[in-house]
Amino acid sequence: MKEVAVEPQVDEISMPENLRVGLFVSDQRNRCSEIGCDAQFYGFGFGQSPFHVPPPLQRALGESAAEGYYSTAEGIEELRFAISDFNKRHFSLDVDPSRIVVGHGTKGLIYTLFSIIKGSVIIPSPSWIGYAPQLKLCRRDYHVLFTSPENGYKIDPSELDESLSELPEEQHLLILNNPHNPTGAVYSEEELEGISEVCKNHDILVLADEIYALTTYQIEKFTSMGKIYPEGTFITNGLSKDRSAGGYRLGSCIMPNCCSEQLINDFTKVAATVYTNVSTPTQIAAVAAYEPNQEIEEYFEITREIHRIMGTYMSAAFNEIDGIKATVPEGSFYFLADFNALSADLKQKGAKTSNDLAKSLIAHPHHITTISGDAVMAQPDDFVARIAFVDYDGKSAFENFQESSPKTASEEEVFVRVNAPKMVAGVKALERYAEDLRI
Question: Do 84 and 74 touch, CB atoms closer than 8 A?
């Protein structure tokens, strides 16, 4: 029998970051085993919350396990009401539950939006890896808006305006990831207002990917784009980051407040066609994750503070390495490391493009896992890498923080060294890597 033919767009999509990192590590371990090396690998590649699922959500999932019936494609009513109240408490968003659609994780919701909304998509770079492959898979046009380190890799309204002026006068969708993966940047209310003015002038829709919203270190400084530009913003969020429940695969999308009933029906129709409904037991359990709960609120506060401590320490440590510059995260559990000062040395050692940077870092004897190049939508000559600072036992760190939270900068440093020794060792490995490049 002939080989099974596959649609050509499948060959155009990038490997998801979790599989890419896993393959990198597996391949390098095989090469290392051939020379008898079993040294430690330093995990800055895969980004997943290291913490445990909040106990109230764990208990609720166990209690709902018997609920095996099909439920509505847009999400059960009780959950949509709970999500509406949650957004009002945390983000001052007054959202009618009818504008909320529950989906199989934010990634699935974003893909559904890409599938049904007309026009091209604008992706600021650097970026999360997932947007472009999804657009390629559903054969949609997109444009890359390159941002600059001088502006903290944030969207500059004037540059956005210029870019939009060069596009056909039709509907477009701008992706706004806030807090930002991979830089850890958080947009101020003033910055969002500047972007929204440009979007209004050009009649541009916004996909506000706010999955890291509640990881913002100074949470009072977070502003949702849905508050600034409610008539044109789709807001996606979910359980994976702030409640460490990525495996639950449950997210939500808030439709713009001017959206028609037809748009919601179309979204629901596509959802029902593709996946029928999100797991009913998971939806019922998720109500507990969105309803007022003091234990979960304390969980947010503790995990947010630990992310801040880890990110502040790791970013500063990277910035102390000669030839490397790192962004200072204000939210999420990532920052961007800039290796461009070492580009000549990298090229001399065989790393000719930004895609080669991650391969160079993981190679023996350094064993440092990162994401670079196409995976963060960097240009070929831009040697930057995303650093995920989550390689530690989150539950242990959580309990240690509860027992004795650090009060000073020196105590925070001790907290990192005690609770994240592999990441501290990874910094030392990176120092050796930078030194070896110059030899």
Answer: no
pTM score above 0.85: yes
- For 404-419, how does the pLDDT look when each residue is reduced to its tens digit (9 = 90+)? 999 999 999 999 999 9
Domain covering 9-51+296-437, topology: Aspartate Aminotransferase, domain 1 (3.90.1150)
What would be the CATH architecture of the domain defined by 67-291? Answer: 3-Layer(aba) Sandwich (3.40)
The CB-side HSE value for 79 (13 A sphere, CA atoms) comes to: 28
List the domain boundaries for the chain.
9-51+296-437, 67-291
Q: Which two tokens stand for residue 161?
A: 């305006």
pLDDT digits (tens, 9 = 90+) for 373-406: 988 999 999 999 999 999 999 999 999 999 999 9
